[in-house]
Amino acid sequence: MYRKAVAIYEVALGDDHEAVSSTLTAIAELLDTMDQPQKALQAWQDVLAIRQRVHGDAPHEGTVSVLNSVALAFMAVDRYAEALDYYQQSLTMLYDVFPTAEELEMTADLHCNMAVAYCQLGNKKTALTMYRKAVAIYEVALGDDHEAVSSTLTAIAELLDTMDQPQKALQAWQDVLAIRQRVHGDAPHEGTVSVLNSVALAFMAVDRYAEALDYYQQSLTMLYDVFPTAEELEMTADLHCNM
Question: Could you say which residues form the signal peptide (predicted)?
Answer without folding.
Answer: none
